[in-house]
Amino acid sequence: MKAASAPTLPLAKPVAEIPTGALVTLRRKARGCRACPLWRNATQTVFGEGPATAAAMLIGEQPGQQEDETGAPFVGPAGHLLDRALEEAGLDRGALYLTNTVKRFKYENRGNAKLHKRANASEQAACRMWLAAELSRVQPRVVIGLGAMAAQTLFGNAFRITRERGQWRELGEEVRGMATWHPSAVLRMPKPDQRHQAYAELVADLRDVVAVLADMA
Question: What pTM value is reported for the model?
Fold first, then answer.
């Protein structure tokens, strides 16, 4: 049973004002957000998806082109790799809440292609209120940051995936957090052995999520 009052949010930096409402209301509000310039070129807002009572929330970095086109998180190549890792780890994607730190696709045009471009600090800060709202509404007991952007949003700018991946932290009363590889980072690794090792580490970290959720049940 969720507590009536929202816990302290597991974010490294405070959020001045957190939008309120059910997830469907937050999704509708986020569609009209103009807090940063990303709305001008993106097709649509890519809000989180999953049960409002999910025990675990996975936070990625920002949408890619397929997510921008569909409006759903983790549906492109990185999403397919994540699906495979979740299945190997024994996690049901349908029971998780999946979202991103930034809710709109940022890119630069290169010929006919739209190449992913990392959201800057001010764009990340502008979007933090929506992540805070999702955390406040869902109140997950386990929060997983996928990639450096999500990890630093949770744990601070000094956090390094290469050094601190897979290490659990207390993020508040009965809330635990950890960061691991983003699936897109695994896909970008240049050597097959690097990709294999990083993928194995991602699956191992997700299996730890299963164990921690079982302990907290």
Answer: 0.93
